[in-house]
Specification:
Layout (H helix, E strand, L loop, with lengths): L11 H5 L12 E4 L2 H9 L1 H4 L2 E8 L6 E4 L6 E8 L1 E6 L2 E6 L2 E5 L5 E5 L6 E8 L3 H10 L1 E2 L2 E3 L4 H15 L4 H19 L8 H17 L7 H7 L4 H12 L4
Antiparallel strand pairs: 1-2, 2-9, 3-8, 4-7, 4-9, 5-6, 5-8, 7-11, 10-11
Length: 250
Amino acid sequence: MNCVIPDFTMPEKKYKEIIKKQDGFKGQKAIVLPRQVINVCQAQELLSNLYITDIGFYPRAAHHYRERDHGSEQHILIYCTGGKGWVTLDEQTIPINEGEYLIIPKNVTHRYGADETIPWSIYWAHFNGKASDSFVELLLKNCKAHVGYAAYNDKRTVLFDDIYQTLESGYSIEHLYYCNMIFSSYLGTFCFPQFLNPPYKEEKGKIDIVIEYMQQNIMSSVSLKDLASLIFMSPSHFSAMFKNKTGHPP
């Protein structure tokens, strides 16, 4: 069960002699959908476009390793939220750091694993379907050598947890519809990460600061200029933004 994933300069002969650990990590979550459930997904029109086959979370996955000479029958997404790992694709070995995700298209020869000193924590999923190739094309647009960057965001984790808990509670057709619809949104957070934290959110936060100040000083006389100065805006800009958010002038 023990394994030390080598540094990238380790001789190939010595590398092959290493015993590799594939799973069994403390605190891990993992679901592999039964074949009959996959058959249901393939037969249903709405599900057949995109469906999960395996999903999980491996925290501090020391000695984690996978090697597939003929690739996987499904596309693979791995999202590193802590530690480090690596992947070898097309005879090129690439490090994977915290905040980075890995896309491995199906049927592509690969091997990957955790860093030997700072093992990664990863959210991962295998997926398939008629539209899955198109999703992979979108995901790879943000990648360099199959690895892209996606800053941690609680919304992404909430989506993953919702998918996992839904599958954990059953495989009814309603469960499958719900979790796979959410999964397309989960993939969207990697395809379009800019929408998780759009620029306008900062301005909305500024208005919230002013509203809180107004509530705390409701018995005081405060001018429009005073309120605008709290968030370093001109009175006219502030007034327009305030009305746009609340529907009322300050």
